[in-house]
Every structure is written in structure tokens, then in C-alpha cells.
Amino acid sequence: MLIQEPLSTLDDFSHEEFLVIVIDALDKCGGLRHDPSGQKDYNTLLHTLWHWVEVDHLKKFKLVITSRPEDPITQTFPESISAHVNIPSGSNVKPGDSVSNDIELFLTSHLNAMNMDETWVIEAHSYLVPHAACMFIWATTVAEFLQINPEQCFHILQTREQEHGAGRFEDLYSLYNTVVKASFGHGLEGEEIKAVTSILGATIFAK
Questions:
Q1: Contact partners, residue 192, CB within 8 Å, separation at least 6
Q2: Is residue 155 part of a domain?
Q3: What pTM was computed for the model?
Q4: Phi and psi dihedrals of 69, rounded to 5?
Q5: Which of 5, 109, 115, 116 is most buried (most C-beta within 10 Å)?
Q6: Half-sphere exposure of 102 (CA within 13 A, CB side)
Q7: Does residue 10 lie within any of the structural domains?
Q8: Which of 48, 76, 104 is the last residue of a domain?
């Protein structure tokens, strides 16, 4: 209603003046998987978006959606009515891709700010950039993890890969697992204990 009704009152305008509406992470809009009401809302949202694309008087804007290619979404927006752009991730990312370059700059900046020996920075850089695999959340998680104790935490990451293999280590949840185990192993401080308690409490409550 907030978008569709105002659009229906607009006069026609040129392609250069199109409004652009961006819906980021549409695949995350379904609520909890075991929540029937959330699933119903999700299906309604998909139908509404399809309606915007199909109905002539609403074709006054460009609708840009980012999402994993999940079946309900790809079925709602087949290539016959939409243009699909594949953004590679994981092993599909090639050196020199724009996202890969951005992540490299991000990690380079953080590693240089740690005041470590140059040899260590070069080794960490050559190791971490390929492992980030086009995922900024992977890179930011690693950057924060290394702040605790750069040399020791970097050794933990390398050991984890040797134990479980590169394919599994590149998985984001495997990285989270490594960070949590390492944090408990170092002994948590007072504020860290409060944060962990709060997060685990919220997780249990949600379940």
C-alpha cells in the first residue's frame, strides 16, 4: 500500500525519470520457517511484487531485487518478465572481480592497522583474501576476530583449515564456529560474558 497506491496516481514519465525501488535480500523476508503466518505474508509479498511487474499502470518504476535463487522467487520472476543478473560467490568468484577487489582493499586496510610485522601482514593477506570468497560478512568477521590477538588468531584459522579442509572452512558457519570456540578458549571478559548470555538467551527464546 505504501508503494503501490502512490504509484497508481502518478502520471506517465520518461524512462530517464523512472523511480527505482530496491528490495534487498528478498529470500530473507519469509520470517521464521516454522511460522505459518510469516509464510503467508511472504507469499502475499511475492504476489504483490509480481502484480507490480505485470500490471501496466504500475510500470512506472524499476524494481531491483537481490536474493538467492530460491524456487518461489525464480518462479515468480522468470526470465520472461525480468532480467536476471548473477553475482558470483564462493569458488565462482574470479580474481579481479569488483567485489573481490573491494574485499581485498578492506582486509588490506585492517591488516595494516594492526601494527604487525610486514612479513606477517603479507602472509595473512595472501591467505585471507582468497578465503573471503566474495563475502563481506566473512571478511568483516575475520577482521574483528584478528583484533583480539592477530598472530594467535591467525594461527587458529590456519589450524582450523588443516583440520577440516578448505571447502568447509570457507563456509561462513564454520568460521562462526571457529570464532566462538576460540573466544571461549581464551577466557571471556565480563562484558563478553554478558553479550554471549544475551545472544544465547535470545536464540533460546526464539526457538
A1: 183
A2: yes
A3: 0.56
A4: -80, 65
A5: 116
A6: 10
A7: yes
A8: 76
Is the separation of the CB atoms in 121 and 112 below 8 Å? yes
Residue 82 lies in a domain: no
Among candidate residues 169, 119, 102, the one with its CA nearest the CA of residue 142: 169
List the one residue out of 26, 18, 23, 116 whose CA is nearest residue 72.
26
The number of beta carbons lying within 10 Å of the beta carbon of residue 158 is 14
Query: Does the CA dihedral 126-127-129-130 come out positive or negative?
Result: positive
Residue finishing a domain among 76, 110, 127: 76
Query: Taking Cα atoms as reference points, which of 72, 82, 84, 6 lies closest to residue 41?
Result: 72
All cell numbers assigned to 196:
554471549
Same structural domain, 113 and 141: yes
Of 70, 83, 59, whose CA–CA distance to 26 is shortest? 70
Please, are residues 60 and 7 in contact by the beta-carbon 8 Å criterion?
yes
β-pair partners for 63: 21
Same domain, 123 and 202: yes
pLDDT in tens, 176-201: 888 888 877 766 677 778 888 898 89
Structural domain including 103 reads 90-206
Look at the block and give the residue holding cell 592477530: 150
Over residues 13-39, the pLDDT tens digits come to 666 677 788 999 998 887 665 567 778
